[in-house]
From TrEMBL:
It catalyses: Endonucleolytic cleavage of RNA, removing 5'-extranucleotides from tRNA precursor. The keyword Signal does not apply. This is Ribonuclease P protein component. One of its GO terms (molecular function) is ribonuclease P activity. Its EC number is 3.1.26.5. Belongs to the RnpA family. One of its GO terms (cellular component) is ribonuclease P complex. RNaseP catalyzes the removal of the 5'-leader sequence from pre-tRNA to produce the mature 5'-terminus. It can also cleave other RNA substrates such as 4.5S RNA. The protein component plays an auxiliary but essential role in vivo by binding to the 5'-leader sequence and broadening the substrate specificity of the ribozyme. Keywords: Endonuclease, Hydrolase, Nuclease, RNA-binding, tRNA processing. GO terms for biological process: tRNA 5'-leader removal. The gene is rnpA. InterPro entries: Ribosomal_Su5_D2-typ_SF, Ribsml_uS5_D2-typ_fold_subgr, RNase_P, RNase_P_CS. Consists of a catalytic RNA component (M1 or rnpB) and a protein subunit. It comes from Bacillus yapensis.
Length: 121
């Protein structure tokens, strides 16, 4: 994930939390905020210490980043996303995490559902 595609500043996180819309399932909470004129989506990750040690938390973050890279063509570019991992995500492998993210992004209506359905078939 390139530096310009990440949400890093606390100010940006707070703005997305306040102004953005949130959608959730058991494993993830996704906040999304439209940024008109933005050429590429940005992503911020939050994985609590309650989910495990540093190795496990970094593994979860790597899985989430990889899932977003694979879904890059199907996501709307004018958005900033914050993904908060919940406890069940610690016990999931990459494919389960990707499937769960697809589910929550469909709920938030930022994912092109037709393209995803064709890829899954």
């Amino acid at each position: 994930m390139k530096k310009e595609n990440r949400v890093k500043k606390n100010k940006d996180f707070q703005e997305i939390f306040k102004k953005g819309k949130s959608f959730a399932n058991r494993q993830f909470v996704v906040y999304s905020l439209r940024r008109p004129g933005q050429t590429h989506f940005r992503i911020g990750l939050s994985v609590s210490k309650k989910l495990g040690n540093a190795v496990k938390r970094n593994q979860i973050k790597r899985y989430i980043r990889q899932a977003f890279l694979e879904l890059e063509d199907d996501l709307q570019n004018e958005f900033d996303y914050i993904i908060i991992a919940r406890k069940p995500a610690a016990d999931m492998d990459f494919f389960e995490i990707k499937s769960s993210l697809i589910h929550v992004l469909k709920l938030s209506k930022v994912l092109n559902v037709k393209k995803i359905n064709k890829k899954l078939q």
